[in-house]
Amino acid sequence: MLSEKKIEILAPAGSVEGMKAAFNAGADAVYMGGSRFGARAYADNPDEEDLKRAIDHAHIHNKKLYLTLNTLLKDSELEGEVYRFLSPYYREGLDGVLIQDFGLLSILKQSFPKLPVHASTQMTITGTEIVKWLEQQGMDRIVLSRELSLEEIKDIRQNTRMELEVFVQGALCYCYSGQCLMSSVIGGRSGNRGRCAQPCRLPYRAEGDREGHYLLSPKDICTLSDIPELVESGADSFKIEGRMKKPEYAALTAFLYRHYTDLYLEYGRDRFRVDGKDMERLMDLYNRGGFSHGYLYRNNGAEMIFTKRPNHMGVPAGTVTKKGDIRADTELKPGDVLEIRSKNGKEERQWTLGHSVPENGFFEPETGKKKEKNRKLIPGTTVFRMRNPSLIEELHERYMRQELKEKIYGTLRVMKDFPVILTLVWGDISVSLEGEKAEAAKNQPMSAGQLEKPILQTGSTPFVFEMLEVETDGECYVPNQQLKLLRRRGLKTLEAECLKKYMRVEEREVPLQEKAVTSAQRIPALHVMLTGPEMLRRGRILTEFRGIRRVYTELHEAVQENFQTVRLLKQEGKEIYFALPGILRKKDRQKLISYIQSASGFADGWLVCHMEAFLLVKSLIPEGNFVFDSSIYSMNRRSKIFLSDLGKVELTAPVELNYSELKKLGCSDMELVVYGHQQLMISAQCVKKTREGCTKRPEMLQLTDRQNKHFYVYNECEFCYNKIYNGLPTMLIDKKKELLELAPASVRIQFIMETDEEIRALLHSYESIYGDGLPEKNILKDFTRGHFARGIE
């Protein structure tokens, strides 16, 4: 029955204040970061003592707190630092951790075995294969990718008993979470390290456009009206995004999702209706050009993107009349911040209202700028309210100035010449404490009311008396100070007794057990990657170069070409590894199986960009050879060991580590990309579809940012996703000294948009440096070294 089903409302807590507001509003749990290793490094994250108190606060009120450790970790952090960071919270009874890093997973299972582990959405979890596999690895909960449809969620639910967490409210990343390097490459602030600078919220000019638009900026999702479908999909936890937003946002969203979820669970669809006023309140607080339902019912679409503005849009509050004044479309109050915009959505005039205006009332725009006073307003222009102080004040009063209180029962026994006894009962927990002996009253004995008054003053504690019984012989006097001291001791003891069941004994740290890997200098094997149908046709050029041992090509492109180029390359003795889709979804599963079966006779191995695809191929070809691309992260030695143990697996060196860090990591058993346009994003959205509709034709589109830097968007129609590439290629071919010191097992040159002449020139350059021993020479004018020199924070 619906009424017996329990749905967790999981709210964001960017601060302790935000946590309390969310709990006060009805959230069952919050997720928040500590001082390190979380995906929101710039939130107001608590220090160790504050976080321990926050965990206790959650437990006292029968709530949960999950800690975000969902970043990629370097060896220097993973060995020792993570253990010391997490230990105090583990002992305090932390309810779970969200993680992205496989190396961290191995530490948690060894050193913190009783700690529930949640697979973060940063793991790009899109299907049943990876969910079942993560369950085998010891995960307790899965945070599904935001891009999944209701049908995909249902399919996963039917194939696993794992707890499933789905995003229901808040911001959407343009890229599949965990696959974005755009902020990292542009400015060194890695999303995989919790420092995303949100370049997707910046304007980009597409080819043929005269000005930039916010082509990569999705609207926030709001699924209040979809709660029945989400409950029926089998989701266990409704997650609200927004740790960078203010506490009032956490409070309002937690309240609304708790209220409407309970409404549906109790009464079903017949009485389930979302009040339009509640939607208005959400819009008033924060929206990016309205809300969307996310990907629940569609793969992508222009309706999900707001190209005019990347931040709060406000709500319509008035309209400019023919007389030049403004008619209020809703009641306005002093302090409301109003804004008038130009046709392209840019702010033209903003002011704070100094007086009340009734709905349909008229008022003049206020501004202190002379040039704005003289600027004529266009009739029909919409005036937006950007800030609603009365709504914010209401939320503060209701959820942020109140403290949650747990109701307790107590008895106070006061008898002459006997110790005063205070017994407190909360649920199944009972504590009794003795105070000083009660004295015989010299004058007027204390009444029951006088005795209970100091006890009832629970103040800032998490408790309030529902009932306090006083037993007295009517002959006693007890100083108020003694009663207050007894009350403080009693409430503190009751709280400690409650928290005791959550406390854990510290486990021991398990040191890293490394496998011996040789790292003598050598000339690495040369591998070449061809991406795109045009590149595959140019693959015959590779037959001119005997030094190429292996060629990677997109699986579906080879199938569509009927393996003509593949046959030619194999005749020349080249290994052929087929690149699997960058993202695998349920709708493409059978198609991929068909492609794998067609290609199995040509395949020497498979290049893996997404774990869902790897697990599918592994189930079909258990003894297959695999290369994990850099999107399967091996940022530290523990991750390397974890991934290498999955079968006949080779790894690609992380692109976010610098030379020194790569040297410490050890590359002698890895492949290093030495040339190519770095993939920065893979997105379920389609820039071309957003601009002009779907053509179902794969093609390359150029975007240009405000700094006149170029990026290339490739719409991969076969699996319906976009890939965004850096406009400048990463060039390391001429770094011979460093490459020989790193001694990778192989190096990779990646081609995606190069001409025949450029392909030949780059391969000749490699041969001359590493084959003929000629001096290093960079043949490119425009290039980047990527993170090879600078790295990331």
TrEMBL record:
Any one biological process term the GO annotation gives: proteolysis
Keywords, sorted A to Z: Hydrolase, Protease
InterPro entries (alphabetical): Pept_U32_collagenase, Peptidase_U32, RNA/ubiquinone_mod_enzymes
PROSITE patterns in UniProt: PEPTIDASE_U32
GO molecular-function term, one example from the UniProt record: peptidase activity
Organism superkingdom: Bacteria
Name of the protein this chain belongs to: Putative protease
Domain Peptidase U32 collagenase: 383-498
